[in-house]
Design a protein that fits this description.
Layout: E1 3-9, H1 16-29, E2 34-40, H2 47-57, E3 61-65, H3 72-80, E4 87-90, H4 99-111, E5 115-119, E6 126-128, H5 132-149, E7 161-164, H6 165-170, H7 181-191, E8 196-200, E9 202-204, H8 215-249
Helix pairs in contact: 1-2, 1-4, 7-8
């Protein structure tokens, strides 16, 4: 089984080289057949040069350059359009994700799960330097999603997840242009009946550069996406139950 790893990057010159190097080292050590799809999302720093150097050193690193406007969700969608693997991992380019967790999640895919969600908030996970305000908003948002969809996953907003390729095909078309794609993909996968498992992961606050997530700006987009998928869930459930209702009336 081949693993595609999509790594979006916008102005990550201080982080992206190390992030990709650590992923390569981990994949090599674990003897995993892999490719890295590094998506340069309209960077205006030296990120393109760093990626070019990484690709020259390792043929497994493929570069996708996006045209304006920039957007995390658009970068992910572009990366997913270029994957050749049987499964795909979405990994941040800011060193916040642990490459060892990619391996652990991939082993769960090999076991047969359709989706693997990394959680920063269950026993066994480690979180460092998470801003308090973002942490509080994160927990409130995830409780809302958990109750609305009646699911056990408690960190749906986290970008770090793995999917079988057929899951990505099934959740198309993806609409999100920004960070709300982190909830669109997994919730669509759950609504469509794919299996998933949640495992603890490590998360490290960025040491360099600036976070691209604007809380106020993204709140409305997250809510719209969550409610849109929830409405889809209601409609699908109603459609499934229609034959049963007719039988009861008869």
């Amino acid at each position: 089984m081949k693993l595609s790893i999509v790594v979006p990057a916008h102005n990550e010159e201080e982080n992206i080289g190390q992030a990709i190097s650590e992923i390569i080292a981990e994949m090599t050590r674990e003897k995993i057949d892999y490719e890295i799809i590094a998506v340069d999302d309209n960077s205006v720093d030296s990120t393109p040069a760093v990626l070019a150097e990484m690709s020259a050193k390792c043929p497994n690193v493929k570069i996708v350059r996006r045209n304006p406007p920039k957007g995390f969700g658009s970068a992910i969608r572009e990366g997913l359009a270029h994957i050749n693997g049987d499964a795909v991992a979405i990994v941040m380019g800011d060193l916040s994700d642990d490459p060892a967790d990619v391996v652990r999640c991939f082993r769960k895919i090999e076991e047969g799960y359709d989706c693997v969600f990394g959680s920063r908030f269950i026993k066994g996970s480690k979180v460092r330097d998470y801003p308090l305000v973002k942490l509080l908003i994160n927990r409130l948002a995830n409780v809302f999603i958990k109750v609305l969809f009646l699911i056990k996953a408690n960190d749906i907003t986290n970008a770090f997840k793995l999917y079988k390729r057929e899951v990505i095909n099934a959740v198309q078309p993806l609409q999100s242009q920004y960070f709300n794609i982190t909830v669109e993909i997994p919730l669509k996968a759950i609504v469509r009946g794919f299996t998933y498992v949640q495992i603890p992961i490590n998360w490290y606050g960025r040491k360099s550069g600036v976070s691209k997530l604007g809380i106020k700006e993204m709140g409305r987009k997250y809510l719209f996406t969550v409610l849109h998928v929830w409405l889809e869930k209601i409609l699908l459930t109603d459609e499934i139950n229609k034959p049963a209702r007719k039988r009861r009336v008869a």
